[in-house]
Each structure stands twice: as structure tokens, then as C-alpha cells.
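Team,

Forwarding the record for the chain on the shared tracking sheet. I've put the sequence and predicted structure together so nobody has to dig through attachments.
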Amino acid sequence: MNKKDFLNRFTSDDKTSLAALYEKIKVAERVSYPLYTNEFYPPNVINTLKDMKELEYIDMKFLGGFEEAERKLIGFNSEDYYDMPYAILKLKCKSKFHNLTHRDFLGAIVSLGIVREKFGDLIVEDNEAYIPVINEVAPYIINNLTSVANTSCEVSIVDNVEEMPKVNFEDVDIISSSLRMDCMVSAITRVSRSNSEKLIKEGRVLLNYSPSLEKSKEISMGDVITIRGYGKFKVFKVLGNSSSGRIKMRIKKYS
């Protein structure tokens, strides 16, 4: 597969980053030693790679730091996990007056000049955050991140991933007239169908982390719908039908 064909498999992604990924794959084809990307990729990139039949002969592993992680870096020819290219950091803040959120911790890291591709998903619980970061930026964060949202913060490396909390979800039951994108957005946000179409048209709706402007797109189980201003949701399962024939569904809202 040439570079042009490779890049054309992806939509609305950073072509410079994907070009670097292509070059990494070409190197992995020629060598037998472990090789890793130096950035985390979003699920739409990971899923596209997994679907490429042309790459099935390459030994690829997708590493996010913890089981529920969605942003992952990629390892090639990697059989062991003793020399991972990332560290998991624990950001511990002590405050009786702040209930720190995912956005607070994310903003604190980005404010240091760390680009989003250098760290993975965050788990936030009780004013603590756990986050996998590329090894090269870990010392900088440890030495320079001293506060989050004006709350003092201590940063350390997690040696045992078993101590990390699980990703929190809130179960939400909805009723939708169909699995079309506009119907699902309307059911999730509790706005009218016309307003849900407006959200989609304005580009405020992402399907599996890529912009989705197609209101009639059919949603599948396991899809992740992100609606700016409302949150991120995973479509979990169909519970049945209402007396009027509408679909009862359970979705999981990311905390």
C-alpha cells in the first residue's frame, strides 16, 4: 500500500501525523525489534488500522495504559510489556473547596504546552487523575505541574496499574423512534428532532470520534456518540420496544 492510498483510508484526521504513522509502519515491515509510535491515536484511527486487511501480516498491538482506554499508541513486533514507551502518572490534588473534573486536569496538562497526542485517556476520581503519557514528557509534567484549577497538585508515577480506579459510566435509558443519528441525538439530548438536526449540521456531533454530518446514519451497538455541550455516550444495548413501537435503549454516559 502506498502512502496516498493509506492516507485516503482516513477522514478528517491530521495528515501529518498519519504520514508519520505510515513511515513507522514501513520501518516495522523491515525490522524485527520492538517499535512504538510516539503519540496516542484516537479510536477512529485505531479502528481504521484494524480494518485494513493489507496490514494483517504486521504484528501490531494497541496500548492505552488501562483496559477501558480508547486513545492508544501502537506497538510493532512487541511481545513483552516490560519496556513500554509510556508512563502512567497520578495527579493528586487536595482541596475541600473544589471538585475537579476531567476538563480541569486536561486543561492543566495542555497549559504546560503538552500536545494532546502525547497523552492518553484520563481517569478522574475524588480529585485525582490517572493518565498515561509518552515517556519523553513524563519528567516535564512531574517537575512542572504543581496545580490544577488553582488547587495544589502532586504528580507521581504509578508502579502498579491495579491501584487505578475504573472508568465511571452513568447508565441512561432512552426511548428513540429509530437508530438514525438524528433520532438518537434527539433522544439523548431531549431536544426536538429539528434541533437535533441543527446540532448535526453545525458539526457538534461526533460518531466514534469523527464528525458526522449525516443525519440518517444508522447507529450500531458499541458506537460512541459525542455531542458538544452534552457529553459523550456509548450505545450499550436495546432493552425492547415501547407500546408505541419505539426503541427502548440503554446508553452509558462517560463521567
